[in-house]
Amino acid sequence: MAPVPITQIRVGHIDDVQELRKAKPTTVPERFVRDMTERPALLAFAPSSPCAVPIIDFSKLVKGNKDERQSELLNLARACEEWGFFQVINHGIDLSLLESIEKLSRDFFMLPLEEKQKYPMVPGSVQGYGQAFVFSEDQKLDWCNMFALGLVPPNIRVPKLWPTNPPRFSSTVEDYSSQVRSLCQNLLKYIAMTLSLKEDTFEKMFGVAVQAIRMNYYPACSRPDLVLGLSPHSDGSALTVLQQEKGSPVGLQILKDNKWMPVEPIPYAFVINIGDTLEVLTNGKYKSVEHRAVTHKENDRLSIVTFYAPSYEVELGPMAELVDENKKCMYRRYNHGEYSKHYVTNKLQGKKTLEFAKIESKKPTQ
């Protein structure tokens, strides 16, 4: 069974950001106002050049000639090592399916609150409608509504949380998730190649990989300088696949060289990021990167996120091929289910959850 948190606080309707937005408050409720050190810099809302996250042409990896494939593998290696983020174009997933999942996700969030509350993210779960990672009554909330579902393996599914409205929602999620799963499997095959590993290294290691999907809805906010759409964090997954609704404002920011930099979405591209699991497996060669979401004063934003990770039964640690006298072992071995439980029972707080796996360096004796 999937590990679950046991102390999560339920967020009530008074903290539902869509309902707050409808009420058009003159001030942002205190529960959402960030401390000065956490607030997005005003620069984030001024015209600025988005960071040039590497772009990977998936078609060149799959069916390019030898030179094209080798060149794209080098681009992928650089993206994983220097950025931890990249955008994938020409990924082969039908664009009409991307449009369908966007429309149905938006249709779900536009349902009346009482309809959405039929699928509550109850305490002890990170599935359903609401806000995850809320563990105290005085914790600052993100300016975001979420709807999340476990997909694979079957025992993490909660059938009563799968909506019958909008029609075709569930069947579209199934189709979309199946194709994104194949994309993740292929990307991991090519990532293995960048590390001079066998193509099936991660597939064999992961067992029946865990997969979940989450839709995020960020309503416009009258004071985007005071709130965060999603708190800074790294992902506990191996890979995360982000689809941003076509026409949405820039909301994703990554921490690059100690600066928060906006990522301009490319229409129909996926934003891929390395999760904590791959950082551990590669012994820190490929790092998970802290990221967050900001809000917009006038426009809302929708994103669809897929998390792909090893089976909860798998024991993980740095791969032997990436540990030697020049690169000591930075992480201990652990059960992935234990780490997953640790991740979802702590609030989002940068890369703090990864301390679970780190080997503490011993201080030299005097």
Automatic annotation (TrEMBL):
Q: Which GO terms describe its molecular function?
A: L-ascorbic acid binding; metal ion binding; oxidoreductase activity
Source domain of life: Eukaryota
Describe the location of the Fe2OG dioxygenase domain by residue ranges.
Answer: 201-310
- PROSITE patterns membership: FE2OG_OXY
Keywords annotated in UniProt:
Iron, Metal-binding, Oxidoreductase, Vitamin C
Q: Where are the transmembrane segments?
A: none
What the entry lists under InterPro entries is as follows: DIOX_N, IPNS-like_FE2OG_OXY, IPNS-like_sf, Oxoglu/Fe-dep_dioxygenase_dom, Plant_2OG-oxidoreductases
Q: Where is the signal peptide?
A: none
Q: Tell me its family.
A: Belongs to the iron/ascorbate-dependent oxidoreductase family.
Q: Under which name does UniProt file this protein? A: Fe2OG dioxygenase domain-containing protein
Upper lineage: Eukaryota, Viridiplantae, Streptophyta, Embryophyta, Tracheophyta
